[in-house]
Write a structure and sequence with these properties.
With 263 residues, this protein is an alpha/beta fold. The chain has ten helices and eight strands. 46% of the residues are buried. It binds thiamine diphosphate and iron/sulfur cluster. Iron/sulfur cluster (SF4) binds next to helix 7.
């Protein structure tokens, strides 16, 4: 029986993340999911762009690919088309996936490319010093919004659904068991799957917004992110909350099947 230990590159530890960063929790959940699915490490590629979250790929024993910021899905599509028997798992921060890489995201979902996209959403650009991203909530303090972010945010999960993704879900690093379950479902899904994981960046977002230390940020996530079924019953004050759950799980032809059909 496989163990998560088989998927962790122990010789590369200790990791470089700040104390209390949530990215390590996502790394552990990913290794647990791969072990539970018993996918051999040499049948997996973890592809990432640039950012603190992108370093998740540094600590796995699978194949790894790190490309340029925002271009993960373009590279990953090429890897998948060349080696369709290998599971390609992409890790992209909220800046990477929703800002510079937003167009790639829309079209990977529209084409329904058989990839798994994990979006660790720490509500800011961690690696470059806490700038706001398109997913940063309005009024947040960041290094580029000292008086509070004036722009609205968008929901990357709904964006992926309307673009055509086969599987879309959201959870948090507080909900580790749910995260592992969603990861397994996403990895098994034929077609484009996206899992957004809300995660603390105590160094920037937490500090700028007076959310306390990492443990307090986890409590804050647990309070602020409510089950999807409950969210759907709410009216009026929804803007205060995020939902978590499985938004879509549907069958549709994936990109490679369509290409073969067209050929
Ligand atoms: C083309 C390009 N533009 C900008 C950068 C600078 N840069 C590196 S990481 C990053 C943002 C990281 O934020 P995010 O993607 O949210 O990941 P996090 O670090 O928060 O995990 C930026 C803007 C870059 N490396 N390449
Ligand atoms: S800056 Fe934020 S996202 Fe980056 S390692 Fe530190 S806590 Fe994590």
């Amino acid at each position: 029986m496989a163990s998560y230990r088989d998927y962790l590159a122990w010789e590369r530890l200790p990791h470089l993340w700040c104390a209390g960063c949530g990215h390590g929790v996502i790394l552990k959940a990913l290794t647990l999911a791969l072990a539970a699915l018993e996918v051999p490490p040499d049948k997996v590629v973890v592809a990432s762009g640039i950012g603190c979250s992108g370093r998740i790929g540094d600590y796995v024993t699978t194949h790894r690919f790190q490309g340029t910021h925002g271009r993960t899905l373009a590279f990953a599509t090429g890897i998948h088309l060349a080696r369709p028997e290998v599971k390609v798992i992409c890790v992209m921060g909220d800046g990477d996936a929703a800002a510079i890489g937003g167009n790639h995201l829309i079209h990977a979902a529209r084409r329904n490319v058989d990839l798994t996209a994990i979006v660790p959403n720490n509500l800011n650009y961690g690696m470059t010093g806490g700038q706001f991203s398109p997913l940063t909530p309005p009024a947040s303090i960041s290094s580029t919004s000292r008086q509070g972010k004036a722009e609205p945010a968008f929901d990357i999960c709904h964006l992926a659904v309307v673009a055509g993704a086969s599987y879309v879900a959201r959870t948090t690093v507080y909900h580790v068991t749910e995260m592992q379950k969603f990861l397994q479902e996403a990895i098994l899904k034929k077609g484009f799957s996206l899992l957004e994981v809300l995660t603390p960046c105590p160094t920037y977002y937490g500090r700028y917004n007076a959310l306390g230390e990492a443990a307090q940020m986890l409590e804050w996530l647990n309070r602020s992110v409510i089950p999807l079924a409950r969210y759907r019953q709410m009216s009026g004050d929804e803007a205060r909350y995020w939902w978590r759950g499985r938004l879509v799980d549907r069958e549709a032809p994936d990109f490679l099947s369509r290409l073969k059909g067209a050929g």
